[in-house]
Amino acid sequence: MNSIEDAKRQVEEDFGMYEQWLDKYEYLIDLGKDLEPFPEELKTEDRLIKGCQSRVWLDSRIEDGRLFFRADSDAIITKGIISLLISVYSGHTPAEIAADDFGFIERIGLRENLSPTRANGLLSMIQTIRREAEANV
Question: Cα(17)–Cα(31) distance, rounded to whole angstroms?
Fold first, then answer.
């Protein structure tokens, strides 16, 4: 398994392939389409990420000392954003995730190219992933 740093570098390379933000949004949409199906029975209130305008569900489990995430959203861009975050952090130890600064989000320019409500949702997703990690350290 790649390190978090390797995963972040890959995201930065992938985003760097596109010059226009319209193409980057298309890339995010494609990431969301690749998410594994999220069971309907897990779409519960306690798994909803608070602070997102659209509905985003995040489920986590610890396996062999590593934290694994799966998620879904009812909005295509948001689904791509949570998919991007999961691709970087799922499968790593809670300590690794909790210690990360999530700075690659700024480096790829994602937050500044989202609407204010989506940017707030992104922050809520990051905070939720970090809280899950911290709770399991």
Answer: 15
pLDDT digit string, tens, across residues 45-87:
999 999 888 999 999 999 999 999 999 999 999 999 999 999 9
Active site residue 84: no
Distance of CA 36 to the CA centre of its chain: 13
Backbone angles phi, psi at 53, to 5 degrees: -65, -45
Choosing from 4, 31, 52, 71, which is the catalytic residue? Answer: 52
pTM metric for this prediction: 0.95
Closest CA to 25 of 81, 88, 87: 81
**DSSP readout, 30-91?**
HHHHTSPPPPGGG--GGGBPTT-SS-EEEEEEEETTEEEEEEEESSHHHHHHHHHHHHHHTT
pLDDT digits 0-9 by tens, 88-119:
999 999 999 999 999 999 999 999 999 999 99
